[in-house]
Amino acid sequence: MSPNTSHFLHLTRKRYRKQHKLLERLYERDSFLVQPNQVVKNRKLIKYWSKRNSLFSKFNERPIYLTEELWYSVTPEKIAKFVAKFARVCLPNAKKVLDVFCGAGGNTIQLALEFERVYGVDWSMEHLYCTHRNAEAYGVSDNIWLKYGSWEIIAEKGRFNKIGIDFLFGSPPWGGPQYLRESTYDLEKLLQPMGITQMLQSMISITPNIMLFLPRNSNLEQVSSATRQVFGVRGQCRVVYVKEDGFLKGILCMWGDALVKAGGEEEEPDEENTCKKKDTKHDVDYSLDG
Ligand SMILES: C[S@@+](CC[C@H](N)C(=O)[O-])C[C@H]1O[C@@H](n2cnc3c(N)ncnc32)[C@H](O)[C@@H]1O
């Protein structure tokens, strides 16, 4: 099968010739297709394989594509659905959405089920290919556009600044399972490809409506400090704790009035308490069990 490159932004340009060829090869070989009765040889993957339907509920009905790295890093479908529906409710008129670090498309797909036009960015051509193929399985590939490249460069060049993005989601790499080694996750040193402050700075010129999926043990003082530095002293961040099957999977940090204030009482923020776990009215637990 040959790829439909019209949904891969700029891929036909000369400088992306290598990536274009790689995409053709991936399609020809039907690479990374997860076979329904696959024997999982990698022992580390067994845990994820047994939970595959929580990653993509269509695993048994439609072809799903994952690289080894993506098995560990894809956002479980219930969480991705929650993110998309939450953003939809907060931003009822939004049309264009950007999913930075789109990986296997776990979030991109659910966003595309809610919004008209979704852009996905990833620096791995294999991952963009998986996003596209998985989006085909969910019937949403036509409203997804994929951009190959590293976020640092794309942001620096302001590639998405003039498109009119209404909502930006990002599930940046946490640096592997070792993120739980320390009791508190250092968002300035460990988050990739840049610390939380620089990450927000790279995103704010695109839209103030930002949501990041971060480790459950994230240092909230750093979230607070990054919020003030990027959004000013009156800036606010809403932190939502997300559980799946009773297990705390991570936190969703969100910025921008529409996301922060939705569903809450209109109240002046207390500068001291903005974003602190206990004192803010914006801390909510969402359990996605059942
Ligand atoms: C945690 S995964 C995202 C998972 C995704 N939300 C999903 O549901 O499949 C992080 C992704 O970021 C990509 N990535 C890492 N560093 C990047 C960078 N500097 N620029 C763009 N993408 C990057 C990786 O290739 C990986 O696919």
UniProtKB/TrEMBL annotation:
Gene Ontology molecular function: RNA cap trimethylguanosine synthase activity
Pfam family, one: Methyltransf_15
Residue span of region Disordered: 264-290
Biased composition (Basic and acidic residues): 273-290
Entry's Gene Ontology cellular component terms: nucleus
Catalysed reactions, semicolon-separated: a 5'-end (N(7)-methyl 5'-triphosphoguanosine)-ribonucleoside in snRNA + S-adenosyl-L-methionine = a 5'-end (N(2),N(7)-dimethyl 5'-triphosphoguanosine)-ribonucleoside in snRNA + S-adenosyl-L-homocysteine + H(+); a 5'-end (N(2),N(7)-dimethyl 5'-triphosphoguanosine)-ribonucleoside in snoRNA + S-adenosyl-L-methionine = a 5'-end (N(2),N(2),N(7)-trimethyl 5'-triphosphoguanosine)-ribonucleoside in snoRNA + S-adenosyl-L-homocysteine + H(+); a 5'-end (N(7)-methyl 5'-triphosphoguanosine)-ribonucleoside in snoRNA + S-adenosyl-L-methionine = a 5'-end (N(2),N(7)-dimethyl 5'-triphosphoguanosine)-ribonucleoside in snoRNA + S-adenosyl-L-homocysteine + H(+); a 5'-end (N(2),N(7)-dimethyl 5'-triphosphoguanosine)-ribonucleoside in snRNA + S-adenosyl-L-methionine = a 5'-end (N(2),N(2),N(7)-trimethyl 5'-triphosphoguanosine)-ribonucleoside in snRNA + S-adenosyl-L-homocysteine + H(+)
Stated family: Belongs to the methyltransferase superfamily. Trimethylguanosine synthase family.
PANTHER family in the record: S-ADENOSYLMETHIONINE-DEPENDENT METHYLTRANSFERASE RELATED (PTHR14741), TRIMETHYLGUANOSINE SYNTHASE (PTHR14741:SF32)
Name listed for the protein in its UniProt record: Trimethylguanosine synthase
Lineage: Eukaryota, Fungi, Dikarya, Ascomycota, Saccharomycotina
